[in-house]
Amino acid sequence: MTGLKELMQPHRIVMMMVFAGLVAWCAVSLRWDWIPQYAPLALEGLWTTIWILAVSTFMGFMLAVPLGLAQAVGPWYLSIPARTFCTIIRGTPLLLQIWLLYYGLGSLFPQFPWIRSSELWPYLRQAWPYAVLALTLSYAGYEGEVMRGAFSSVAKGQLEAAKSFGMPRFTMFRRIWLPQAIRNVLPTLGGETILQLKATPLVATITVVEIYAVSSRVRSDTFIVYEPLLLLAVVYMAIAGVIAFAFRRFERG
Fold it and tell me: Does residue 101 contact residue 107 with C-beta atoms inside 8 Å?
């Protein structure tokens, strides 16, 4: 009942009415006859966006944990490289990183015959591995700094108590340090994941056909400008809403 009362507040009702009116106007006044023709390509692009987001976020977080730990408590020969990596990633545009990997690293591989004859060549000649790598490194660079603060914020008394009971370091890290650090930064991780979603359209610049690239193709083929962009905005809002809902559930759990 509390949620219903909050939803039925006057300003929320007005916003919902305005939104409903806008949806009705768009449905009646704008052109949507192109959707059946491009629906299969749009579904393929949507799937590409989702799996690139999921893979790069997961791999980026797995890399961010040791980066944050190295900066928080690691020796200088680990903390300095980790801090340098995070500084470079956070200080340079993601588009530049994508282009450096695709047009730089990707252009070097064909020069080596042993790479061209290997089983990895069918993948290395495509654009999506470089897109996934760039997004993974970008997420790791930002979240590495976030995890540094998260590890530093865990109460030292709990760690000292675990040591006094003879708990091994890895067990202490797995049961006490890492879970509390993740719990402390869940809201930040949720926001960063949504930002990662908004960064995925950049991979269209290296010929990866995700949902933004599909909307661009519709505009170039049909000269219909606003409708694909509006539908694209709805898709991104829906995915962002699912991400935000999932992280809120994790926070409450």
Answer: no
Residue 20 lies inside a defined structural domain of this protein: no
What average pLDDT does the structure give for the chain? 88
- pTM, whole model, 2 decimals? 0.89
Q: Tell me the per-residue pLDDT of 196-220, one tens digit each, with 9 for 90 and over.
A: 999 999 999 998 999 999 999 999 9
pLDDT at 8: 63
Higher pLDDT, 192 or 9: 192
Number of domains forming the structure of the chain: 1
Q: How far is the C-alpha of 79 from the C-alpha of 68, rounded, in Å?
A: 9
Q: For the CA atoms of the chain, what is the radius of gyration?
A: 23
C-alpha to C-alpha distances, 80 to 12, 72, 83, 149, nearest whole angstrom: 49, 11, 5, 16
Q: Residue 212 contacts by C-beta under 8 Å, 6 or more apart in sequence?
A: 45, 49, 200, 201, 204, 232
CATH code, domain carrying 233 = 1.10.3720.10
Instruction: Please report, for the chain, how many H helices and E strands are present, in that order.
Output: 15, 0
- 220 CB-contact burial (10 Å; exposed 0-12 / middle 13-18 / buried 19+): exposed
